[in-house]
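fyi for ur records
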Amino acid sequence: MEYISSDTNVWIDFMAIDKVELPFLLPCTYIMSDDAVNDELLSPEGFKDALLQNGLKPVEYTEEEFTLADSYGSRYPKLSIYDRLALSIAKVRGIILLTGDRPLRRAAATEGVRVVGSIGLLDRLRDESYISNDQYLECLQLWQQQNGGHIRLPQTTLEERIKQTKQLCNLL
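which gave:
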């Protein structure tokens, strides 16, 4: 089983389009520090419960992970403690970090931690045949419609993926 250390924003992207269950189709276990689960997943109502019911696993961080997260504070001042914990968990455990947060992605690159975001997860779902091209296109289009509010995905990447998928499905 593949483990992935999770930040909050990717879940917001899937929740906003009412597709929070999709990432859980992959043979992965998504983990998040129990503190982040209890403090960051409060809104919208039902967000935390939906993620936990689908399989998000709260984990206790180790002393080593906390110490590393603490040391990231001076190196990466734009990161919240929960961002730093997600990064330290990924680094110490040698697993992927799930985030779309730009400062966190940059810190992960500096730390040599592999990152995947919302679009990357959706790509994987389609590429590994967990969702159809039609479902993939629907998610992209819903994200595009809501982009700029709670969803902050790269517009050009969304447009490129939509165009490619329409061409693949002969919808242009």
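The longest strand covers residues 28-33. thats all i got for now
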